[in-house]
Specification:
2 copies of one chain form a homodimer. By secondary structure, chain A is of the alpha/beta class. The first copy, chain A, has 3 domains: 174 residues, 3-Layer(aba) Sandwich (Molybdenum Cofactor Biosythetic Enzyme, Chain A), CATH 3.40.980.10; 82 residues, 2-Layer Sandwich (Alpha-Beta Plaits), CATH 3.30.70; 82 residues, no CATH class. Chain A is 44% helix and 20% strand. In chain A, strands 2-1-3-8-7-6 form a 6-stranded mixed sheet, sandwiched between helices. A 4-stranded antiparallel sheet of chain A has the order 10-11-9-12. In chain A, β6 and β7 form a beta hairpin. In chain A, α10 packs antiparallel against α13 and α11 crosses α12. The longest helix of chain A has 20 residues. At the A-B interface, α1, α2, β2, α3 and β9 of A face α1, α2, β2, α3 and β9 of B.
Chain lengths: 349, 349
């Protein structure tokens, strides 16, 4: 089952807002084993929205349209979806009543154009609104004789997330006829180039390509190192994990201790955890060590959630602020961080 | 001149990375008066990248393709662009030399597959790489007898930004034959619904629609209030500003003091600036005022850049943490904040 995503809003194209909605939706679709192969941003223009929807529906089984359901003149998703369905919009009194009640409860006057949100393409099912005034819509479409579906949900993130979870994902599961999950495992590495890792992992990649699954991809992430992402699709999370485990073991065998962590680990969280385990975080040492407090603090501007050892870093930052980076304020980081530190400096030369 | 954007990477579709690149590119294109009407994310799949490029080029004059220029097996932008151009890839020894030198300077071995980055579609112009190993590409394409262009630039943000500024935008300007700018002015409002604002501004919108420019759009931004965005395109920033000024004046005349700020202003920065001006930020008062320190601090988790009055908020948060929200820790916020505070609570009932 392929479900693509269309995000509506000129502000997205102008870069005034970053489209985080489709990333969230993509993540949720993957977690539910649904493929999403194309995600498009288009502005508040009726003809273009309609054209994009027709284009995406030519290949996808379903489309989630996010945004353009507000009450104003530039909210055009309802009209575009109705055009794709080749039906007209009809006033739904039950929606109008809910909207009127929302304003009444807040003792605020309701502008007439709020009733635009009570317009529904003929044949669509309503996703009741609980957090905003805009209901969502489940809109059946027939494309070249094949039954497909368009989901229209609001662009306001908490309304979008609510309707995605409450109505869209369950409906997609029902249509897909079975459940599946896509699970990723990311190995965090440091000290080897993307091409070097690729070359060393060539035999693994060749065997995965032959098998078709799991897949392996590289993500060059600058400061955060090189990520090796393994992804598997299976009926259950457990089955996907069982597919990933032997591949992860092979990758670790080849890449060795250049793997410093997994998934959401960061160099900082791993180093600080090592410091904590070794009870070194409050000791000072005089001999050369690779990472200084300032660099650690610079990387660690956002305190890692897992970290319980931050006081050392804070103390060192204050010392460094006043007097540069005196040797007395260096942190001892242990052998794994030592390698990371060397590679880090080599990479910035 | 219309320049659309295609971001390449399965990780974008899976929501593992939010596509901030195309938002940045969209912002830059707008600032240079270039239209961007479609922005697409597609995964690391040769056939789909090629298909998306052909689809976008049917309508756009130019396409910026971001990502997929790395050295590994899943970096497929070069191949896809060559297919769209209907040419083959050729090895460019000057690029190979630069890459070899980059590795030599760092005393690191170069994997053979780095030479994939020295492959260039026949007829493309190279954008020399200065920050990473991947060069960018300026690729002429003829679509139905019309000269168009594909720019391929890396997905690593600092490499993308460098090549966009250094090569892509100047080339687009040269092709467009003239310069223009798109300028937006955002009025920040609080206390009126989107539909209510829309209704009150109907006469302004009607006259703008008749004239075609500037345009007016509403952005419902939850906690941050309702934004009214005015956008004008003109030969110079000054000319665009002169188009916007009378429209802004009309909007302010109608909306009144529900406009609490402009552009990057926040409720917090405006309130705190008022407090600073009135020299009230260190006084405590005993009578009822609308905003308490806790709420102000909750909104103000990220300290506004403009704010010079934060000590009051910090002090109040500490007081509130220990003993709830005693009346003695309330802040006096002045009449404008008073209205904002009432509307805020009404909206959350």
């Amino acid at each position: 089952m392929r479900c693509d995503v269309v995000a509506i809003g000129t502000e997205l194209l102008l870069g005034q807002i970053v489209d985080t909605n489709s990333a969230y939706i993509g993540e949720q679709l993957a977690a539910h084993g649904l493929d999403s192969l194309l995600q498009v941003k288009v502005g508040d223009n009726l003809a273009r929205i309609e054209s994009v929807l027709r284009g995406v529906l030519a290949d996808a089984d379903a489309v989630i349209v996010c945004g353009g359901l507000g009450p104003t003149h530039d909210d055009l998703t309802r009209e575009a979806v109705a055009a794709v369905m080749r039906v007209s919009l009809v006033h739904d009194e039950s929606i109008a009543t809910v909207i009127r009640d929302m304003f009444a409860v807040r003792s605020r006057p309701m502008a007439d154009n709020n009733l635009r949100q009570a317009l529904v393409p003929c044949g669509a099912t309503i996703i009741p609104q609980t957090r905003g005034t805009a209901p969502g819509l489940i809109c059946p479409v027939v494309v070249d004789g094949v039954d497909k579906v368009v989901y229209a949900i609001p662009g306001v993130p908490h309304e979008m997330k609510d309707m995605l979870e409450r109505a869209v994902l369950p409906d997609l599961h029902r249509r897909a006829g079975r459940t599946a999950v896509i699970v990723s495992r990311t190995l965090r590495t440091w000290g080897e180039s993307e091409s070097g890792l690729n070359q060393r992992l060539d035999p693994v990649i060749a065997s995965l390509d032959a098998a078709g699954s799991p897949t392996l991809a590289f993500l060059a992430s600058g400061w955060e190192g090189m990520k090796v992402r393994l992804t598997a699709k299976a009926d259950t999370a457990g089955a996907a994990a069982r597919m990933l485990a032997p591949v992860e073991a092979r990758v670790r065998e080849i890449v060795g201790d250049q793997v410093f962590g997994v998934d959401d680990d960061t160099m900082e969280s791993v180093v600080l955890e090592l410091l904590r385990q070794r009870d070194h975080q409050r000791r000072r040492c005089q001999r050369g060590v690779p990472w200084r407090g300032g660099e650690l603090c610079e990387r660690g501007e956002v305190r890692p959630a897992r970290c319980r050892s931050w006081s050392g870093g804070e103390r060192t930052r204050r010392a460094a602020d006043g007097r540069g980076r005196p040797s007395g304020s260096r942190l001892s980081c242990g052998p794994r961080a030592h390698r990371g530190g060397r590679a880090h400096r080599a990479g910035r030369r």
